[in-house]
Amino acid sequence: MPDLSQIVKAYDVRGEVPDQWDESLAELFGAAFVQVTGADAVVIGHDMRPSSPGLAGAFARGAAGRGADVTEIGLCSTDQLYYASGALDLPGAMFTASHNPARYNGIKMCRAGAAPVGQDTGLAEIRALVERWAEEGAPAPVATPGTVGRRDVLTDYAAHLRSLVDLETIRPLRVVVDAGNGMGGHTVPTVFDGLPVHLDPMYFELDGTFPNHEANPLDPANIVDLQARVRETGADVGLAFDGDADRCFVVDERGEPVPPSAITALVAARELAKDPGATVIHNLITSWSVPEVVRENGGNPVRTRVGHSFIKAEMARTGAIFGGEHSAHYYFRDFWNADTGMLAALHVLSALGHQDEPLSGLVAAYDRYAASGEINSRVADQAGRAAAVRAAYADRDGVTLDELDGLTVTADDWWFNLRASNTEPLLRLNIEARDADTVEKVRDEVLALVRA
């Protein structure tokens, strides 16, 4: 019996292939997905990992065996799959393990219109069915199985994104893109085709073994090559995509990283210019600058827990025009409330290209505070150490505590959030303050409690 508790996560399926799951299990997931969603048709895509085509094909067989017609869109980014789910109004499944190492693979599932499938929205039921069928045997095929066909949506996806941002009148820009051998190498050439952009591609060869570096741009080690290329060539901007190209990380003309919170604030200001008074979602680890900029531009900031299912739920509930996370996930009402790093990147190019300042000058207005970045501590007793931190600050004058997601402690000139990892024995600490010295002081004080 496979141990699905190890691979069915809060928002997706993810594990090592073939040790933790394989094509036979993928076929059961396809059947269960159709059973739980009640879909009569589904769309399926996959990334460039060696195991992805086989797993996606097995999922398609399982879905068709339950009577659903399958549209395979083949190689795609995760946001391209979301585009297909939205434009075709079909539930979808994307085979990817995002930035994880090559031996991993997974499934990101959504309902029609790119609505998320997570533990509380169908994933728990899918897991229960797969566990039952793995033990008892797969259900008998329906009398009339579904069909399996293919469709290419890359051109339509690119056209939709470009219809949402004015790029035709920007000044010429030199743009370095590091695709990390992931799906950005597949999507960027089509999206950028014909724009007034000199594209300098890095690691565009699709290779799920990631021969150059991990496709995780939030790890500083993985953007070193991009930073060097931007500096060497005098480029205007550098963009780095993760493995499934749904996240985008930005470096300025000096090769310096631009915090995702600053990108969130910049895009929020642009979106609010189109829809004054609209709501913008931000998770509780984004910078103070995000709600400040939203209010300054006449918008309504709404704070949420970390995680795409919470962001998307609040987007739907509030009718928000945009949402952003500290992890470089960016969500758009015009993209079915789904996340697309590519659209955020196009906003950056448009903002940069419609004025004469360098990117560092442009984003300075949105990057107002000092921050620690995420600091991870491996601890045996997550709950106990978090409780010790809470006790230390509970009665301190001038601070407030909230537990929307982990523990957030806020003072006049700093705040920190301490959250337990869902998948590892880690406590994750994020700190922001008005200056770097205060960040260091708060960091040392909290880590002394966490690592005691």
From TrEMBL:
Family statement: Belongs to the phosphohexose mutase family.
Annotated Gene3D superfamilies: Alpha-D-Glucose-1,6-Bisphosphate, subunit A, domain 3, Alpha-D-phosphohexomutase, C-terminal domain
UniProt domain Alpha-D-phosphohexomutase C-terminal: residue ranges: 374-448
GO biological process: carbohydrate metabolic process
Thylakoid recorded as keyword: no
GO molecular function ontology, one term from the record: intramolecular phosphotransferase activity
PANTHER family: PHOSPHOMANNOMUTASE
Alphabetized Pfam families for the sequence: PGM_PMM_I, PGM_PMM_II, PGM_PMM_III, PGM_PMM_IV
Protein name in the entry: Phosphomannomutase
Organism this protein belongs to: Streptomyces zhaozhouensis
Essential cofactor(s): Mg(2+)
Coiled-coil residues: none
Source taxon at top rank: Bacteria
Keywords, sorted A to Z: Isomerase, Magnesium, Metal-binding, Phosphoprotein
